[in-house]
Write a structure and sequence with these properties.
The complex is a heterodimer of chains A (427) and B (252). In chain A, the strands form four sheets. A six-stranded parallel sheet of chain A has the order 4-6-7-8-9-10. In chain A, strands 11-12-13 form a three-stranded mixed sheet, with no helix packed on it. In chain A, strands 1-5 form a two-stranded parallel ribbon. In chain A, 36% of the residues lie in helices and 11% in strands. Chain A has two domains: 300 residues, TIM Barrel (Alpha-Beta Barrel); 104 residues, no CATH class. In chain A, β2 and β3 form a beta hairpin. The longest helix of chain B has 23 residues. In chain B, α3 crosses α5 and α5 crosses α6. Chain B folds into two domains: 119 residues, no CATH class; 109 residues, no CATH class. The two termini of chain B are 39 Å apart. Classes of the chains: A alpha/beta (427), B alpha/beta (252). The interface between A and B is large, with 58 and 51 residues. The structure holds iron/sulfur cluster. Iron/sulfur cluster (SF4) binds next to loops of chain A. Iron/sulfur cluster binds next to loops of chain A.
Chain lengths: 427, 252
């Protein structure tokens, strides 16, 4: 096994670009939003608050950031990973300057919104973190790059290095990898729970202190916060457990996003299932996550602890069917939170209703004119006291299950912010 | 139906509003996209600045944002744009105050819907525009948008590429934005000018194509999704979607 190094030139060659891209591409957080970084004098670029998709690949995913590994040469042995130590794969490493040049060249031509830099654990965690830090620092200072930077944190690295790196990144992420400590021990033995959660907490405290420090005009640390990712379906946890973990990560760690990645068997291993997890499951988890973040649902409401999300309906429908007493909701009086609980009514629909009803009561016809999607909603609302849905519960269930082809949920995820869920939309 | 034909400018449009306002049978449209049927009457609108100014003033009194909204709406190249704007104005003047929230009113909903589509295209092109570089470090991006969004895009790229001279070229409308890194102007694109990419340009473009190919998860194909998010009509100027090297040679 040979590690390919650069020949001294600053333009990375095709061969290494390929290895370092293919190793990075399963990381799903493509989002480049949530950061408004203004330009420093004479610098290149800014970060746009709403994410921007620069291209879409044939798998339906949005290309927003240059997603690349510094190296795929790893001393760790995570069982699900094709780059684990001892595997016979081509290894490559890029120099910090090569990464910087590539980022700037792509950015200037408007191919990308910024850089998503990650790495395998090369020699030691500190060596790796040091290289990552060097790269982002160079990019910001020497290359005067003001675009978006998402940096992956390396477990077990010196907290001082991690804190220093945070000064240059818009977003950092430590992946929890698996939804429970037991699974982590089994499948990623070198990554302990502490090695992932402690740096998350450190960064959380750093950013908090930084935000409160309004007195001096200090540069903001991690303006786009932290995210994490976990593999679903490689281990036995239920969706109920996963949702509770996500809820805790949002509440206690203040994460901006949790990404779910349906397990794909890229390598064979006796401890791993032979089959990948379905995309439908991943899709349902993203829908549930959305309810958690934006629609005021708790994990408890979304799924019982030992159960998975139902396949036949989206999680909001499922909740509505479990809670018939909450409905029907009167469109002309209900508050935002109640409107958002109606299956089929999303942010856009609820907002339209709130705006338009200021000018007078809305009829069912009015809702149609405003293109509020009523296919599912009509079973759960009244307009001026009138009900337009099906009478009997079983009929409703059948209708809802038939309608959930997944296409409508896609509007949930139509934004660049969640480009990955685009991938799950085919269901 | 009486057709009020404008010269396609914004002054022309507001002049037509002035002339047509009282006519219940009025249909306002730019000359270039009229579709007549039997029995229709034609009125050729004379563009008069003062008339247009009076209309603008009146609209501002009703809603301070009206002109901004309408200016985006009038960039739309969809059929019926001027008429949609006209009906929106009627609603606005009739109420005498902002009507944006009246979504159950078809004229309002339709106008806002069209505005949203123009804005969406502008947002898309903040991502889909592709620059080529020449040996002097000047960047050039040709594109062919559905709507007239060039001037909406320029401020975004001026912020993003400070100090870098760039050109953005709307091939459909033969308009070109010329930016020296600090300020910008618009010009009519001329046929004879050439843009010669630097030798490095091809190499970076090639790396980008390779990147695009390798970042795709081939195990999970979803072409329909790709086409939905990135319509085929936009592909012409995306190097990653053109296997031949798509290096622009000449301004059209
Ligand atoms: S640390 Fe684990 S997941 Fe990361 S490259 Fe190494 S083996 Fe793969």
């Amino acid at each position: 096994m040979k590690v390919c190094r650069s020949g001294g030139e600053r333009m990375i060659d095709e061969f290494r670009l390929r290895i370092l891209t293919e190793s990075a591409k399963y990381d799903v957080s493509c989002s480049s939003s949530g950061s408004a970084r203004s330009n420093t004098k004479n610098g290149l670029g800014n970060a746009s608050f709403h994410g921007i998709c620069h291209s879409f690949t044939p798998d339906g995913r949005c290309v927003s950031l240059l997603k690349i590994l510094l190296t795929n040469d790893c001393v760790y042995h995570c069982r699900y990973c094709p780059n684990r130590a001892g595997e016979d794969v081509s290894r490559a490493i890029a120099t910090p300057d090569e990464i910087c040049e590539l980022t700037v060249a792509f950015y200037k031509r408007n191919y990308i919104e910024g850089l998503f830099l990650s790495s395998a654990v090369y020699l030691t965690p500190d060596t790796t973190m040091d290289l990552l830090l060097l790269t982002v620092k160079k990019l910001r200072t020497e290359y005067a790059f003001n675009g978006y930077i998402h940096l992956k944190g390396i477990p077990h690295a010196d907290p001082a290095l991690v804190r220093e790196a945070a000064k240059y990144a818009d977003r950092m992420s430590y992946n929890v990898e698996l939804p429970s400590e037991a699974s982590l021990k089994l499948l990623a033995p070198q990554k302990t729970k502490e090695s992932l959660l402690l740096p998350m907490r450190t960064l959380r405290e750093e950013t908090k202190a930084n935000r409160e420090d309004r007195s001096r005009r200090k540069a903001r640390i991690l303006p786009a916060g932290q995210t994490t990712q976990m593999i679903v379906g490689a281990s036995p946890e239920t969706d109920g457990q996963i949702m509770r973990l996500s809820e805790a990560l949002y509440r206690k760690m203040g994460l901006k996003r949790v990404y779910y990645s349906a397990y794909l068997p890229v390598v064979r291993d006796s401890l791993l299932p032979d089959r990948g997890a379905g995309l439908l499951r991943e899709h349902r988890l993203y829908q549930a996550d959305w309810l958690l973040r934006f629609y005021g649902f708790t994990a408890e409401e979304i799924a019982p602890l030992d159960e998975n999300l139902p396949e036949e309906y989206d999680p909001k429908c499922a909740w509505a069917l479990r809670n018939p007493d909450f409905f029907p909701v009167e469109i002309n009086r209900a508050d935002l939170e109640a409107l958002l609980r109606v299956p089929g009514i999303g942010n856009k629909g609820a907002y339209r209703i709130l705006r338009a009803r200021k000018y007078g009561n809305l009829s069912f016809e009015d809702l149609k004119k405003m293109r509020v999607v009523l296919k599912r909603a009509k079973h759960f609302i009244t307009c001026c006291g009138k009900f337009y849905g099906a009478k009997d519960e079983n009929q409703i269930k059948t209708l809802l299950a038939l309608q959930d082809s997944g296409t409508e949920q896609l509007t949930f995820f139509g934004d660049a912010e969640s480009g990955m869920s685009v991938l799950t939309g085919q269901l | 139906m009486t057709y009020y034909l404008t010269d396609g400018t914004s002054d022309g449009f507001y002049s037509a509003v002035f002339d047509a306002y009282a006519d219940k049978e009025a249909f306002v449209t730019a000359k270039s996209r009229i579709q007549l049927s039997f029995g229709d009457r034609l009125v050729s609108v004379e563009t008069i600045e003062e008339k247009a100014e009076r209309v603008r003033k009146k609209l501002t009194l009703c809603d301070v944002h009206a002109l901004d909204d309408l200016s985006i709406l009038l960039r739309s190249s969809e059929d019926g744009t001027e008429q949609a704007a006209f009906l929106y104005i009627r609603e606005l003047v009739h109420r005498g105050r902002p009507v944006k929230g009246r979504l159950a009113e078809p004229a309002v909903f339709d106008a806002l819907d069209r505005i949203a589509r123009v804005k969406e295209e502008a947002h898309r092109f903040t991502g889909f525009l592709r620059f080529t570089e020449n040996s002097d470090g000047v960047l050039y991006a040709p594109f062919s948008p559905d709507h007239d969004i060039l001037s909406l895009l320029v401020p975004h790229f001026l912020k993003r590429l400070p100090g870098i001279p760039f050109l953005i070229h709307d091939k459909k409308r033969h308009k070109i934005a010329v930016c020296d890194g600090k300020t910008y102007t618009f010009a009519v694109a001329c046929d004879s000018a050439t843009f010669v990419p630097s030798p490095e340009q091809e190499e970076w473009e090639n790396l980008w194509k390779k990147y695009y190919r390798h970042v795709n998860v081939a195990l999970r194909p979803h072409e329909k999704q790709m086409r939905g998010s990135m319509p085929v009509r936009y592909w012409k100027y995306l190097p990653e979607k053109n296997q031949r090297n798509s290096v622009p040679k000449i301004f059209k």
